[in-house]
C-alpha cells in the first residue's frame, strides 16, 4: 500500500508540473526526472536545480523538482531582462544602442577585482552583455517605483515585491522568483507573448543572443547574488535553438559565499546541454 501511495503521489506531482508550467496535459510522460544530472552539481561543488523544456515535443527534463517549482530566490541580474523590457516599453530606453555615460566612479566586484567592463560609457546592449549593474540601476530609477510596480504586477513576476529602493530590490532578496517562473518568462518572451510591444521583446531577445553559428543559437542571461544565509547564488536562464527549434532552460545553483560562480555557471550549463546532445546541430 505504501509503495502504491508513493507512486500515486509522484504521478500527481508530475501532472501538476505539466499543467502548471506548460499546459501540455496531465501525463507523467511529459516530465522526466533526471537524477543523473546530479553528477554535474557534485563535480562543480554546488547544489541547485536544472530544467529543460522541448517546445516541440512538450517534454520536460528536470533535476531537483522541489527546488525548481517551490523555492524562490532573488533574480539578481536575470532581472535585467524585465528591466530592459520595461525601459524600452516606457521610452526610458530608446533602443539597444542608447549610451549611458560612465559616472566616473570606480566600481569593484565582491572579490575586490575592479569591474573594468563597467567603468566606461556603455550602450544598453553592452551593459546587458557585461551585466553592468550601475546602468540598469539608472534605468530602474528612470522607470520609477510606481511604474516598476505596475509592470511587476502585470507580469505576475515572482513575489512582485519592491520592499527596498527601486534600484536595488532585485539584488537584496526583496524580490524573489522560482526557477519555473523564470522559465515561463523566457518562454513567453521567445514567442512574443509578454504584455509588451513586439519591438520591445525583439530588442531584448537580440541582446540575449550570445552564440550564433551553423549548429546552434544560444541565448541567455546570467545572474549572481547572495542569499540571506550568505551563500552565493547563480542563474542561467534562456534558450538554445537547433534547426530553428527552441529548447528553454533554467540553471539555478548555490555554493559557499566565497565561490566565484561567474565562469562556473556557463561551463556547467554547457556540460549539461552537451550531455543532452546539443551543439552539434542534430536536435
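Sequence proposed for the structure above (283 residues):
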Amino acid at each position: 500500500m505504501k509503495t502504491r501511495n508513493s507512486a500515486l503521489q509522484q504521478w500527481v506531482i508530475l501532472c501538476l508540473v505539466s499543467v502548471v508550467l506548460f499546459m501540455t496535459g496531465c501525463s507523467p510522460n511529459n516530465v522526466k526526472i533526471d537524477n543523473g544530472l546530479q553528477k554535474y552539481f557534485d563535480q562543480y561543488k554546488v547544489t541547485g536545480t536544472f530544467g529543460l523544456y522541448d517546445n516541440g515535443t512538450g517534454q520536460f527534463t528536470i533535476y531537483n523538482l522541489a527546488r525548481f517549482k517551490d523555492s524562490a530566490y532573488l533574480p539578481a541580474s536575470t532581472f535585467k531582462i524585465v528591466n530592459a523590457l520595461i525601459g524600452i516599453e516606457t521610452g526610458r530606453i530608446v533602443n539597444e544602442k542608447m549610451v549611458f555615460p560612465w559616472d566616473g566612479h570606480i566600481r569593484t566586484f565582491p572579490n575586490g577585482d575592479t569591474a573594468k567592463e563597467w567603468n566606461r560609457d556603455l550602450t544598453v546592449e553592452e551593459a546587458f552583455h557585461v551585466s553592468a549593474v550601475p546602468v540598469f540601476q539608472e534605468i530602474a530609477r528612470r522607470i520609477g517605483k510606481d511604474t516598476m510596480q505596475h509592470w511587476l504586477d502585470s507580469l505576475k513576476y515572482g513575489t512582485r515585491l519592491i520592499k527596498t529602493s527601486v534600484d536595488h530590490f532585485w539584488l537584496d532578496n526583496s524580490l524573489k522568483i522560482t526557477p519555473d517562473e523564470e522559465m515561463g518568462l523566457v518562454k513567453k518572451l521567445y514567442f512574443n507573448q509578454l504584455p509588451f510591444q513586439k519591438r520591445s521583446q525583439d530588442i531584448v531577445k537580440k541582446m540575449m543572443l550570445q552564440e550564433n553559428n551553423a549548429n546552434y543559437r544560444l541565448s541567455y542571461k546570467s545572474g549572481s547574488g547572495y542569499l540571506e544565509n550568505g551563500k552565493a547564488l547563480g542563474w542561467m536562464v534562456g534558450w538554445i535553438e537547433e534547426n530553428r527549434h527552441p529548447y528553454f532552460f533554467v540553471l539555478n545553483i548555490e555554493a559557499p559565499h566565497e565561490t566565484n560562480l561567474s565562469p562556473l555557471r556557463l561551463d556547467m550549463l554547457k556540460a549539461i546541454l552537451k550531455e543532452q546532445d546539443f551543439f552539434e546541430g542534430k536536435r
